[in-house]
Every structure is written in structure tokens, then in C-alpha cells.
Amino acid sequence: MSTWVLIPCHRPRLADLRASLAHLGSHFPTAVVTTNPEPIGPEDLPDVALLRSPEPGINISRWWNVGLDWIAEQERDGHEPYEVLCMESDVRITFETLARLHLALRMKRLAMVGADWYGVAQEPVEIRRDLVPETIQHRIPGVCMLVAGELGLRFDEQFRWWYADDDFEWQHRKAGGTGLVRGTMIGHGPGRVLTGELAQYAAEDYQRFVAKWGASNIR
Q1: Which residues of 26-65 are buried (b: 16+ CB within 10 A; e: fewer)?
Q2: What tens-digit pLDDT sequence spans the chain (219 residues)?
Q3: DSSP E strands, 57-143
Q4: CA–CA separation, 111 and 151 (whole Å)
Q5: Distance between alpha carbon 146 and the CA centroid of its chain, in Å?
Q6: Are strands 187-188 and 91-92 parallel, antiparallel or unpaired?
């Protein structure tokens, strides 16, 4: 099996990205999807696969999919399952934590797993397959998700920002289940207040989520 790290990032977040990669260590092949108008250049990250999102505008689902498609192409001739750690540029995760997530994903035959960063899991792996609203504490952290890449699931590009990870999680619940792994932890930078265009996208994408799944994602 092979495990990939996938991160969308533009140049203003380069310092965060470098710190995240250093925290994890150079154990895994890594793809970074960068975007206009301030893309990261190959001289900035010589040891990763640097991909460019082909279209302008904000659409984090498209950025993730550029990377997922490229990784799938690299794995096309392989005969083994593979994993993709989809994480944001300011996440801090250790090699040991990722190893535990990997073990839970495969031992429980799940589609997605994540760290129990609120410390609420009632089982060693709290599994969810139902498509019903859940408190944020029991959801897979949208900033850091380990998925079974061979399933071929992709982000729905109608979700441009806030609800992209929510929809991705529900896809994986349906495809085989998600698991919150007790005793694992990640770090993440401070949250940012949604304003302007992003706030508008979040409001619109929430309505799209409800229209697609017939329910809100959080109760």
C-alpha cells in the first residue's frame, strides 16, 4: 500500500505549508495543488509534486480533485489499495498519528477516517454510516481526512468552499463508512471568520448540501 499527502495551497500560506510538511516528516509522497493569482513555484518546494489548478476563481473542491485525479493516475498501473491524506496547509499531524489512522482505515474496512480532536469517541473507532446530522465533535475533521483512494470518490464541485468537506464525508459514509479514531490528535491553525465572497459561498453551498442530501449536516 502507498499513502499520499495532498494539500491545496497558494503562496501566502507557504510558511504554514513548510511547517506542516516538516512536522509530518518526509515519509510520504506529497502533491500540492497551487492556484492563481499567487501560485507556489517549483523552486519553493522542490521535493513535492506541484500541480496547478487550471481554472481561475475560488473552488476548493476543484483544487482537491486536481490532486486526487493526478494521484489516481500515478496509481493506475498498481494492483494495491492506496490512501490519500487530504489536509489543509496549517494542519500539524505526526507520522505516528497517520500510521494509526491508516491502521484503523484498513482494519475496519472503512472509506474515511480522521482524528478524534475533540476527544469524544465512545469506541476505539467510532464508525458512522448513517446519513443523518451529527454534532461537529463527532464528525471527521474537514481539515484532515484519510481516505481509501481506490474507491475513486471525488469532491462535488458545486460546493466551492465551506461545505466541500461535509459532502465528501457523507459520500464516504455512504461508500463504506467513516471512523473517528479515539486517542489521535491533530493541530490546526486558528479559524478564520467568513466574510465577503466566502460568506456568500458558504450560505449558498449550505442550501445545495440540503438539496442534495435532504438534511443539514450538523445538529
Answers
A1: eebbbbbbbbeeeebeeeebeebbbbebeeeeebbbbbbb
A2: 699 999 999 999 999 999 999 999 878 999 999 988 889 999 999 999 999 987 778 899 999 999 999 999 999 876 689 999 999 999 999 999 999 999 999 999 999 999 999 999 999 999 999 999 989 999 999 999 999 999 999 999 999 988 999 999 999 999 999 999 999 999 987 666 666 777 888 889 999 999 999 988 876
A3: 82-87, 91-92, 112-115, 125-128
A4: 8
A5: 7
A6: antiparallel
Contacts of 178 (CB under 8 A, 6+ apart): 110, 111, 112, 113, 114, 127, 128, 129, 140, 169, 172
**AA letter at 157:** E
Cell numbers linked to 61: 473542491
Asked whether 58 and 197 are in contact (CB, 8 A), the reply is yes
3-state secondary structure 125-152: EEEECCCCCCCHHHCCCCCEEEEEHHHC
Q: Tell me the whole-structure pTM to 2 decimals.
A: 0.94
**Can you tell me whether residue 92 is helix, strand or coil?**
strand
